[in-house]
Amino acid sequence: MRKVYLDYNATTPIHPEVATYTLPFLHELYGNPSSMHWAGREVRPYIDQARECIADMIHAHPEEIVFTSCGTESDNHAIKGVAYSRRDKGNHIITTRVEHPGVLNTCAYLEKRGFEVTYLPVDSYGVVAPDAVRKAIRKDTILISVMHANNETGTLMPIEAIGAIARDAGVLFHSDMVQALGKIPIDVNKMQVDLAAFSGHKVYAPKGVGILYMREGVDIDNLIHGGHQEAGRRAGTENLLGIAAFGKACEAMHREMAEERPRLERLRKKLLDGIMARIEDVQLNGHPEFRLPNTLNLSFGFVESESLLIGLDLAGIAVSAGSACSSGSPEPSHVLLSMGIRPEVCQSALRISLGRDTSEEDIDYVLDVLPEVVGRLRSMSPFYTKK
């Protein structure tokens, strides 16, 4: 059976260059990077090199890169760190209703501890209005947190405009940029971002490594306490293999992005056009233009996404019904609901995300299989009448 993987927003396979590069870290390069002896000195340069590669990709300084275990940890560190370090200045946080659970659940945690959170609405495309952010700022606002690219729909937020608003108001600005890294250019200075979260396994590095970008001069409370690692900002023995892999993956993706981005846009367009031509009652969720090059979120009328997922999986096609972090929840997507989409339409949605291994043949195969699966499921629905 042919296997087609179209769930790159959930995780990515290891880049071939990364796999080759990290092999020595499973054998001879095993030292603790914080050790002063030869084994530690031998591996420390690899962490420094990774820090430089990642900083170069997002137009940051190497000392502004803090290695973590994942994007969710980075989100937690940024939001809790600002909240507790600036509590004497205020207790108000601004975010949106469509954020990743790593942001929303952290804000909910802080609400139980006396902080106030404003959850801004989005329009029908899933975009928050910069003016709404400006109007929500109060004298006691200490943080604005708005994601760069939505993990479910691929919709891009007006990060530059929001960054300018935050800077003018003297409020720290955090962004979950996990889905944007490696897919579209990122310039944290141009965007005026103070704190940003990234994750290795979204850019063809292993799971278990992330980044918190922390602008120079920004001082926040630590999330993890212990040793002196990461200039005292994140305790714990460094994940040498993961960090080295993340750096190499960023180096590769930075080099490939100029060609890969238009290729993915072309394949995404071919898939969308093919689906719309072959299947009726399909709705595109998210902004039609301002979106990631690799992501589609589509609702298939009169079909439940779980049944559609199973039908496609039986044909060897791997997609998702939304965020992997929300998998298992019986509730409709909070992202789609916040866009004003009806619950029954939300529950018929699929997220299809392409990657560097996606081929024309993969798209052709999906366009052959998907109409048959949707048709079979609709034939069992008492509510569906073919037009």
Structure description:
By secondary structure, the chain is α/β, with parallel strands linked by helices. 39% of the residues lie in helices and 13% in strands. The chain has 11 helices and 12 strands. The chain has helices at 16-22, 38-58, 71-85, 101-111, 130-136, 159-169, 240-278, 305-314, 334-338, 343-346, 360-379, and strands at residues 4-5, 65-68, 92-96, 116-120, 141-145, 172-176, 195-199, 210-214, 282-284, 295-300, 317-318, 349-353. The strands form 3 sheets. It has a 7-stranded mixed β-sheet, sandwiched between helices. The chain has a 3-stranded antiparallel β-sheet with strand order 9-10-12. It has a two-stranded parallel sheet with strand order 1-11. Helix 6 (159-169) links the parallel strand 5 and strand 6 (172-176). Helix 1 (16-22) packs antiparallel against helix 7 and helix 7 (240-278) crosses helix 11. The longest helix has 39 residues, at 240-278. It is globular and about 70 Å long. The two termini are 33 Å apart.
